[in-house]
Amino acid sequence: MNIIDKMVFMNKYEYGIDLPDNEAIELAELQLKDLERKGCTLESIDECHGCSVTKNGSKCPLCDWEKRHPEYANDELAMRIEFLMNKSTNLFKTKMKTEVLTKFKDFKNKLDLKEIIVSLEHEVDIILEIAKKLKMKIDASDEEQLALLAGVNKAINNINGGMFGAILQKAARFDE
């Protein structure tokens, strides 16, 4: 595997960057060019601080490069890398949103949404009841307060547990 293929592989499988092949290769080439200009030896791109520079006790040239060279912060190379990274992020979010919406539709077909609402209302009622008890036991021992909060955690786990919770957790990532 050549160094460009290795970088494409790392981008895709370690960082979730999923671009069309031509852009994935372009991003890898630009990232390698950026690393080289920053002084990286490219000896071990899959693990930083594994090169001859750092093994000899010298400081990695990447560590404070931005501080030493602020003039390159928004140059053409940096902007193109940022553009491709943002494009990948947006493609990933769109793909995830489609996947989650499909799972949600399947989930709704298996369960009545009214059942889900009743279940959520039940867990929220439990949490509100615990909140009232906590308010009354503001001076209670740590052990008593912790026991009540454990009930909150159980209710939250009931909401998060199972397919519906998994769908909600993934859906929350749309806004990140």
List the helices and strands and how they pair.
Layout: H1 3-13, H2 21-37, H3 52-55, H4 65-68, H5 76-110, H6 113-136, H7 142-160, H8 162-172
Helix pairs in contact: 1-2, 2-5, 5-8, 6-7
The protein's oligomeric status is single chain
Task: State the major sheet.
Answer: none
Structural class: mainly alpha
* Shape, principal axes of CA atoms: elongated
Intertermini distance: 34 Å
The unreliable regions are none
Helix content: over 70%
Number of spatially distinct domains: 2
Beta-strand residue fraction = under 5%
Radius of gyration: 25 Å
Brief sketch in words of this structure:
The chain has 176 residues and is an all-alpha fold. It has 2 domains: 3-95, no CATH class; 111-175.
Can you put this structure into words, describing what you see?
- By secondary structure, this protein is an all-alpha fold.
- It has 2 domains: 93 residues, no CATH class; 65 residues.
- Helices cover 71% and strands 0% of the residues.
- It is elongated, with a radius of gyration of 25 Å.
What features would you highlight for this structure?
single chain, 176 residues, mainly alpha, 8 helices
